[in-house]
């Protein structure tokens, strides 16, 4: 027994906390088979404010404390809670628990109704306030990934940790291929306290986790992309062109196909493109692709990614790995933001084209869902951006393509796109404008959850999704602990010989 219902209405039930108990913000309580979540706490007293002030004055100013008889009866903590789920009906609550009903804390058995879905994607364990219940939370990865995920939080609340936990559970599943553009090179392999961590440590990583880098360790793949694979629409995502320049780009591509960049730098004239326009485009393309021309008029690479002769199959290979349900991590840590966007856009354009074709041919059902992890999502999903990622957010689900958008600034993503990101794994956020943007586009009514979200600690989250019956509070595990656990389980038992 932790309290008793003393009033309120459907949206907010008032509970008197039992003396000696400590109910927390976000805690899950049960009354009358209805699951309630604490949304606010305040002081309550049976005495008038003036009396309380007088008594406090006596005590503070040294006149001795006035004894309150039955103090625990007169003063109490008033808990505000919202009904979240009918445990009996296994659905949304439509009625109030009985007036004056005694409440208890929720326990693991209350969540027996949560089933492990066909294509499980592990997120964490149910959290009641700051207490963790031993109930794993899985979502159906296939559905959730095609309908996009948003991970909003301020810095340091555990966004990357969460993505690592999600990817870890997907390594040995072939229903999903995930592309990760890893700007901090923190997903594949890293050292902590002398031990190796990262997705590479997964017992089934071999063949299921593919790593590309411009500085690949021995045995890993080099990230090299041939300029023949670049298309005008890829460049549009990172370079601003005037309408005349854009027309010129398409004319080059129409005339010379794969060889258009090479020909752009040749002396071959093209009808409809002036010399000045051509020179400006040449300059922009040189900067974007880190290529240049030597004194003999030959193109050469200045950077490490775009190549004149190598890397013709890189984009195709990556797409094929994704189509096979693998996780592809591309280390973009030493690249500019523009190059990172360009590469991801090239890959996702190819994925989109392939999956569109599969849909037309009736082959899509046999293909895994493909999702792309985008950090600092407003770079490509922000207001006024016209990118492949916006297209995926709007139409991707028809083609089994999704995005996992990570951001500190949900408020600058257009509402229409935010509403399309149908699962939100909300981590802590102290900025009220950001909380508002997330709350107003969530799958469940989170209008009372503002304080709760503000108070979320590292790894604490709320999962609001069209695929969950209510907004589930979870505790995400520390990724390194998952890895350590897997290592322990993998270790063969040592045999003891006696005698
Ligand atoms: N669930 C968790 N449990 C315990 N510690 C965690 C958890 N999640 C993250 N941390 C710790 O918090 C720190 C920040 O985590 P992480 O890098 O994932 O945050 P972030 O939101 O991605 O930060 P940034 O925006 O700076 O990239 C790390 O030291 C990490 O180990």
TrEMBL record:
SUPFAM superfamilies: P-loop containing nucleoside triphosphate hydrolases. Gene3D superfamilies: P-loop containing nucleotide triphosphate hydrolases. Residues 123-351 form the Helicase HerA central domain. InterPro entries: HerA-like, HerA_central, P-loop_NTPase. GO terms for molecular function: 3'-5' DNA helicase activity; 5'-3' DNA helicase activity. Belongs to the HerA family. This is Helicase HerA central domain-containing protein.
């Amino acid at each position: 027994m932790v309290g008793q219902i003393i009033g309120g209405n459907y949206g907010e039930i008032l509970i008197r906390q039992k003396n000696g108990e400590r109910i927390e913000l976000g805690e899950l309580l049960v009354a009358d088979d209805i699951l309630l979540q604490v949304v606010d706490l305040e002081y309550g007293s049976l005495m008038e404010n003036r009396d309380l002030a007088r008594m406090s004055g006596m005590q503070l100013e040294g006149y001795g404390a006035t004894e309150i008889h039955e103090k625990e009866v007169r003063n109490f903590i008033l808990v505000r809670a919202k009904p979240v789920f009918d445990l009996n009906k296994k659905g949304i609550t439509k009625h109030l628990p009985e007036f004056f009903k005694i409440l208890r804390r929720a326990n693991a058995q209350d969540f027996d109704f949560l089933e492990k879905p066909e294509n499980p994607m592990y997120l964490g364990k149910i959290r009641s306030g700051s207490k963790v219940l031993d109930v794993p939370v899985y979502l159906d990865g296939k559905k959730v990934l095609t309908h996009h995920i948003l991970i909003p939080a301020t810095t340091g609340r555990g966004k990357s940790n969460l993505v690592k936990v999600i990817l870890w559970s997907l390594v040995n599943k072939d229903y999903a291929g995930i592309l990760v553009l890893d700007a901090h090179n923190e997903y594949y392999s890293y050292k902590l306290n002398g031990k190796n961590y990262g997705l590479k440590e997964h017992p089934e990583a071999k063949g299921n986790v593919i790593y590309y880098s411009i500085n690949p360790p021995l045995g890993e793949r080099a990230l090299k992309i041939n300029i023949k694979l670049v298309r005008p629409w890829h460049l549009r995502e990172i370079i601003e062109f005037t309408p005349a320049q854009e027309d010129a780009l398409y004319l080059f591509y129409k005339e010379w196909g794969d060889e258009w960049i090479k020909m752009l730098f040749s002396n071959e004239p093209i009808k409809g493109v002036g010399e000045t326009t051509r020179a400006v485009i040449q300059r922009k393309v040189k900067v974007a692709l880190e290529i240049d021309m030597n004194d003999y008029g030959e193109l050469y690479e200045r950077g490490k990614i775009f190549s004149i002769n190598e890397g013709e199959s890189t984009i195709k290979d990556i797409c094929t790995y994704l189509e096979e349900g693998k996780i592809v991590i591309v280390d973009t840590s030493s690249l500019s933001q523009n190059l990172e966007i360009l590469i991801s856009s090239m890959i996702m354009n190819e994925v989109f084209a392939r999956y569109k074709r599969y849909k037309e041919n009736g082959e899509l059902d046999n293909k895994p869902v493909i999702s792309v992890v985008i950090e600092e999502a407003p770079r490509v999903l922000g207001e006024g951006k016209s990118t492949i990622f916006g297209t995926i957010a709007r139409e991707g689900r028809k083609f089994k393509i999704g995005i996992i958008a990570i951001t500190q600034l949900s408020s600058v993503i257009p509402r229409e796109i935010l509403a399309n990101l149908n699962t939100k794994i909300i981590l802590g956020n102290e900025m009220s404008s950001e909380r508002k943007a997330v709350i107003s586009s969530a799958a469940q009514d989170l209008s009372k959850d503002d304080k709760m979200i503000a108070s979320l600690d590292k790894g604490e989250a709320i999962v609001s999704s069209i695929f969950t019956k209510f907004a589930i509070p979870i505790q995400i595990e520390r990724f390194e602990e998952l890895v350590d656990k897997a290592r322990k389980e993998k270790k063969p038992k040592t045999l003891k010989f006696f005698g």
